[in-house]
Amino acid sequence: MEAGLSIHLPYVVMAVGAGISGGLAVARDQGVKRARAMFADREADAPSPAGGWAAVRTRLDAHREWLCVPVAVLLAVLGESVLPLLAGALAVPLVRRWIRRRALRIGRERTAEAVTMLCGAVVGELRAGREPGRALLTAGGEGALGSAEAAVLAAARFGGDVPEALRRASSVPGFEGLAGMAACWRVAVDGGAGLATGLARIEHALRAERRGREELRAQLAGAWSTVVVLALLPMVGLGLGAALGADPLRVLLHSPGGLACLVAGSLLEAAGLFWATRIVRAGEKV
Predict the structure, then answer these.
(1) How far apart are CA 221 and CA 218, in angstroms?
(2) What are 126-154's pLDDT values in tens digits?
(3) Closest by alpha carbon to 30, among 50, 59, 1?
(4) Integer distance in angstroms from the first to the last C-alpha of the chain?
């Protein structure tokens, strides 16, 4: 057993090195050429090591799905089969999709928080004696409205239809709170109601909604942990089998019965993860 491990060790090291090199190669972009041009310029400042490492980390974070490749290469070398490589190739787009969905969710939450802060800032400006248009210009001039900032601030600056601009901006995911802000603005303009009072109530409602979402997520953290543990159990079983000298990868990848078990287990694992994820996500929407 030790002899077999010593034989495979160089190939394992080579596989890991090749996978990491491939991931770094994928993470490269045209910024390398720009960096070389900056170094060629005598007047350019040399980047610090911390800045260079931050740039590398940023590129690696943007291509985290390619970390599946070295894992697949390692399993392919250990199991002496191309099936892990095929599985790794299929895993890359799935992991990329999951990462993008998670990034979109985080972006929507940050945008909703920015809308909440915008309401509070406008309320503060109104109570300080500013008119509504000037209050919105002062509070929304720091990128709080994102891509809709130009249209909304232009309407506020030149006397346009601010409620309509806010309503249109609310159609973007994360900016839903601007619909309530637009309604308050319309009522204040048409009916003479206090805009600061209405916006303060909207801010309170948005903060309460965020707190409820955070509490629900904290309560579902245990369920998500259970899903992760169940997903990792097959890997634990493979590790225990290898520790006992059973060579599970060879059995699964090089025998008809093992291949049948591998296909059936993979399908059941995918179905279980899909089912458990749907249950937990349904709980998040309650």
Answers:
(1) 5
(2) 888 888 888 888 887 666 666 667 778 88
(3) 59
(4) 54
